[in-house]
Amino acid sequence: MPLSTQEEEVAEALEKITASLENLQLSQEEMQANLEVIEVIEEELQQQSEHLAVESQFYYELFQFAPDAYLLTNPQGVILKANRAAATLFNVLHSFLIGKPLALFVPETERSVFRSKLNQLSLVDSVQEWETVMCPRGGQPFDASLMVAPIRNTSGPLVSLQLSIRDVTKYKQVNLQPQSVTARQLLPLAAAIETPHSLDGLRVLFVDDEADAREFITVVLEQHGISVTAVASVAEALSVLERSRPDVIISDIRMPDEDGYALIQKVRAIEAEKGWHIPTAALTAYLAEDRAKALKAGFQSHLHKLAEPTELVAMVAQLAGRR
User: Fold this and answer.
1) Contact at 8 Å (CB) between 129 and 163?
2) Please, are residues 277 and 296 in contact by the beta-carbon 8 Å criterion?
3) CATH class for the region spanning 176-320
4) Measured on CA atoms in the order 131, 132, 135, 136, is the torsion positive or negative?
5) DSSP string of 254-291?
6) Please, what CATH class does the domain formed by 69-167 belong to?
7) Digit-coded pLDDT (tens) for 105-151
8) pLDDT score of 64
């Protein structure tokens, strides 16, 4: 018996309701699956958060308990973060350092130069090495070695500075004494060279922007009869090479304007033009300097400034082919 119009409408409505219930059931199942995925993601995020917390604590303690003074400043040198060693170095409470300009711990006679160097960091990207005089609160001034790393954002502007500061007063007292004292101390170095006069007349060109380093290296080498021409820049070194050919070139790596890598490139160009071959050595006070990088750049040897004077003399002798 055919269905009436009303019965057909009811049947059609029931079909729609059944379809809706099925869709609702499917949606619930999908929602449940999504909830399970969210729970897994939340668990992973929780684990990552705990891991990051542990890592953050590790690096915080590494920063705080490092033996050297470490600071984070804004581009103007105002201290944003400091570790305990920095507070000890400057003889103040840790909380006192935050918000203070680092120039506060530089003697007034040195502040204009210090600020000028800070301003120059907006033009460079590499780590800069400085030497300056710093003064702790209520204490005596000391010679400080600074490693300054400029930090930029993705668009380029300078946003902060990372600094490590080390008191090098004792090192300089031991290794950079006046020439008359140093000469007496260097007399035993003759034993490092098999023939006492084997280096007489050897000519060395030494390039370093630090006057104390130039004086010290000159004294060390001249005690063995080596003639030393010490200059403060790459430009001065090239001027010397226009007039004469040294037997060995020793150069600091990190210098303002043009560094040791720029020098070695220009020396190799001069050699190609004049048919020369001048043995070269890189000398640096930067503990993290990559020896492999210096050798790859063209230097035949690499030595740290903290090395014993005997090592320096032996290196020059080896480069010059003398014993």
Assistant:
1) no
2) no
3) alpha beta
4) negative
5) --SSS-HHHHHHHHHHHHHHHT----EEEEE--TT--H
6) alpha beta
7) 998 888 888 888 888 887 888 888 888 899 998 888 999 988 888 98
8) 65
